[in-house]
From TrEMBL:
The family this protein is said to belong to: Belongs to the major facilitator superfamily. EmrB family.
Keyword annotations: Cell membrane, Membrane, Transmembrane, Transmembrane helix, Transport
Name this protein carries in UniProt: MFS transporter
Entries under Pfam families matching the protein: MFS_1
Membrane topology classification: Multi-pass membrane protein
Highest taxon of the lineage: Bacteria
Location(s), subcellular: Cell membrane
InterPro entries given in the database record: EmrB-like, MFS, MFS_dom, MFS_trans_sf
Residues covered by the Major facilitator superfamily (MFS) profile domain: 48-528
Provenance organism: Terrabacter terrae
Stretches that traverse the bilayer: 48-70, 90-108, 120-139, 145-166, 178-201, 207-228, 240-261, 273-291, 312-333, 345-365, 374-392, 398-425, 446-474, 501-523
Length: 545
């Protein structure tokens, strides 16, 4: 709580201390001033939170908005009318963005310390906005892929920088509530992105899924320049060049191999094994090397912090199951129930509403009680919801089953993600926050890629086991194909087998979520001391008179 008579802008200065040792007079200068963090979320910190949320909305919405446009890209960029590009070709517009993210995220911690979070955040917004504008001008699929890389270089820095800025602005006592604010775009983006993308493509053109970022980006850059306080960078840390040459391309190759699994249908393909193997070797090499330099590109020493390591493992399993399972639900709506993209997107809204209910509650609670008493409840709700989805069929009621289940899963999401991030960062020292948030974002990026790849391969294999499922799905969207499939009875049987494939794949995601409960059991269940202010409160060296 704020001491009486002290405003949030005041500082506390420790008085000088004087000691005498064997006749030698030793005086210790006053400790540096400590920032006074009020207990409540005040106007200045909300102003900073607005900057971060605006950038996060741009970055996360862009991923899901582009996903909805892939079929459009297949026809728009075809070499001749009536033809369509291969899905694997246009999918590179998503893969290129993801690989750019993976390349730049490891550099973010060093760059934030070197150049300052304010300048780097504005640069990231500008890069993302320029990339968006260029994407709208693309005349070929190759140009679009290249401009998506530029977008990814900016977008990859936005989330770890945003977490660093929010953590430093909030202080340890308010971190949970501020992280809950940052979590809103992270959870709602995958839900409302398809709605926005489908609407823009229908009423305007595909160009607007990128052009809409331009005014938002300009506003975000100006807002950041006005709202973010200037910070003092630490240019004494040199860039870990060897670490960069090992980690950034290694991570990009690893994720490229993982992302290629669904298209190849097997891990044994050369397109998967070669980049995956090289990537793993480079990442392992980085792990052994990273303990040698004083300032490594990624400070893996931070994992000595039990809270950070436990939260990261829990986050990895949660993110893999969540992002993989999230991919299945709208696909089920379209392929088994015959809904269009917009209808499927609207039916995902209950999940977002559930998250909106619990996220602020979980954020407030994580500032007051240990997250080890919060996160397991969220994971249990999500796991129960995922197990419930294993029962989906061709006529599963929307209001009687799907909507309540998704709402419960949303409640679980809101009570899981942000408390985990809060727990991971809360006990780090202030100079470690940028590096810690970088580690969290890399873990989440790898987890989501692995989860999507695993769930996609499992689903594809289940679907391929049915001779009727694929043709039945095609006939559902094109009734003229019913007779070629073998009649309405055969179509119905094929759709039933397709629904069974979805149910079996949901079971895999549910088991993965259940495994997340194991590390969650080791999350702190009692209050631990925060070291966030230690760097600013260390006693200055003694002066001998």
């Amino acid at each position: 709580m704020e001491p009486p008579g002290q405003s949030s802008g005041e500082v506390v200065v420790a008085p000088p201390r004087t000691t005498v040792r064997t006749g030698v007079h030793v005086s210790t200068p006053a400790a540096p001033a400590l920032p006074a963090y009020p207990d409540k979320i005040d106007g200045p910190v909300l102003k900073i939170a607005g900057v971060v949320v605006l950038g996060a909305i741009m970055s996360i919405l862009d991923i899901t908005v582009v996903n909805i446009a892939l079929p459009t890209f297949q026809t728009v960029f075809a070499e001749s009318p009536g033809q369509a590009l291969a899905y694997s070709t246009v999918a590179w517009t998503v893969t290129a963005y993801t690989l750019a993210l993976a390349t730049v995220i490891p550099l973010t911690g060093w760059a934030a310390d070197r150049f300052g979070t304010k300048r780097l955040y504005i640069l990231a917004v500008v890069l993302f906005t320029c990339g968006s504008a260029l994407c709208a001008t693309a005349g070929s699929i190759g140009m679009l892929i290249a401009f998506r890389v530029l977008q990814g270089l900016g977008g990859g820095m936005l989330m770890p920088l945003g977490m660093t800025i929010m953590t430093r602005a909030a202080g340890p006592a308010r971190m949970g509530r501020l992280m809950a604010i940052l979590g809103v775009p992270m959870l709602l983006g995958p839900i409302f992105g398809p709605i926005l993308g489908g609407w823009l493509i229908q009423v305007a053109s595909w160009h607007w899924i990128f052009l809409i970022n331009v005014p938002i980006g300009v506003a975000a850059a100006l807002y950041a320049w006005w709202a973010l306080p200037s910070d003092a960078p630490e240019p004494s840390e040199s860039l870990d060049v060897v670490g960069m040459l090992l980690m950034s391309p290694g991570l990009a190759l690893f994720l490229y191999g993982i992302s290629s699994i669904p298209g190849e249908g097997t891990v044994l393909s050369k397109k998967v094994l070669i980049p995956l193997g090289i990537g793993v070797v480079m990442i392992v090499g980085f792990v052994f090397y990273s303990f040698r330099p004083k300032h490594p590109l990624l400070d893996l020493r931070l994992f000595r912090n039990r809270r950070l390591s436990t939260a990261t493992i829990t986050m990895f399993l949660f993110a893999a199951a969540f992002f993989g399972g999230l991919l299945l639900v709208p696909t089920y709506y379209q392929q088994v129930r015959g809904l269009d993209t917009l209808q499927a997107a609207f039916l995902m809204v209950p999940q977002g509403l559930g998250a909106m209910v619990t996220m602020p509650i979980a954020g407030a609670l994580s500032d007051r009680i240990p997250v080890g008493r919060i996160v397991p409840f969220g994971l249990v709700l999500m796991t129960g919801g995922m197990f419930a989805l294993t029962q989906v069929g061709t006529d599963t009621p929307y209001w009687g089953f799907m909507i309540p289940v998704l709402f419960v899963m949303g409640l679980g999401m809101g009570g899981t993600m942000m408390p985990l991030m809060t727990s991971a960062l809360k006990t780090l020292r202030s100079h470690q926050v940028a590096r810690g948030s970088t580690l969290l974002n890399i873990s989440q990026q790898i987890a989501s890629s692995v989860g999507v790849a695993v769930i996609s391969v499992v689903f594809t294999n289940y679907l391929s086991a049915s001779a009727l499922a694929g043709p039945a799905i095609a006939a559902l969207h094109n009734p003229s194909l019913v007779n070629s499939v073998g009649g309405q009875v055969a179509v119905q049987k094929g759709l039933t087998e397709a629904a069974d494939a979805f149910g079996s794949t949901f079971l895999v995601a549910a088991v993965l979520l259940a495994f997340a409960l194991i590390p969650a059991a080791f999350l702190p269940r009692r209050h631990e001391e925060s070291h966030f202010l230690d760097d600013q409160s260390q006693t200055a060296p003694a002066i001998i008179h």
